[in-house]
Amino acid sequence: MYKSILAFVFIAISNVAIAKNDSIPSIHIVEKPISYSEERKKLSVEYLQNRHGLNLQKPIITPKIIVLHFTDGGTIKSVFNYFNSTTIESGRSYNKKQSNLNVSSHYLIDRDGTIYHLLADTLFARHTIGLNYCAIGIENIGSVSNPLTDKQVAANIALINYLSKKYPIEYVIGHSEYGKFRKTPLWKETDQTYYTGKTDPGESFLKQVREGIKGLKVNSSY
Ligand SMILES: [Zn+2]
């Protein structure tokens, strides 16, 4: 009896410890939703059909991949305004030919590490060819000449940790690495020639983020 009580107490304590480790960490996220109008929903469902070959009634994704980006310039205000438009600008004719849906991302992180949440994690966003149907996009204000900051590294690590506790995330990649998925079953793009070379978010940034998430069971390639 005494032993079984001890065993029970031990199991109870272990369970508490496990539950604590698996719980969703609390991080500060600023809600700043972009417009997800009926037209955006329609264009997203069409993108899922025409580009990814997926016939869905609603523009909903099951997040499996997190793709890290930088914005190549701009500020929170200018990038927010850019993503807030439903249709893609005429200047981006190569992308516009494939779909009139504008680009966007789920999160946008400022240089001081503030995390802005632009649209629900399970809503469709156009940010990574071939993988949008299962990818959460995290944009960071920065560029090659304005490299991402230590505070952005820390914010990305915290956000990835948070998201990987909420969703079955299997991969965390830089936009520059998405081409590695082209020959895998995860790649869904009906036009095999539709591809653009990317360099964001930068090697050094990726290395630092990976160092911070090495405790997570996520892969960097297929
Ligand atoms: Zn990108």
CATH class descriptor name: Alpha Beta
Spatial shape = globular
How much is the radius of gyration in Å?
19 Å
Q: In total, how many beta strands?
A: 6
User: What are the low-pLDDT stretches, counting only 5+ consecutive residues below 50?
Assistant: 8-21
The helical percent reads: 25-40%
By helix and strand content, what is the structural category? alpha/beta
Strand content: 5-15%
Structure overview:
The chain has helices spanning 2-22, 38-50, 76-84, 93-98, 150-166, 203-212; strands spanning 29-31, 65-70, 107-109, 115-117, 135-140, 171-174. The chain has 222 residues and is an alpha/beta fold. It has a single domain, classed as Peptidoglycan recognition protein-like (Lysozyme-like, 3-Layer(aba) Sandwich), CATH 3.40.80.10. It has a 6-stranded mixed sheet, with helices on one face. A hairpin with a 5-residue loop joins strand 3 and strand 4 (115-117). The longest helix has 21 residues, at 2-22. Bound molecules: zinc ion.
Keywords:
Lysozyme-like; binds zinc ion; alpha/beta; six-stranded mixed β-sheet; globular; about 220 residues
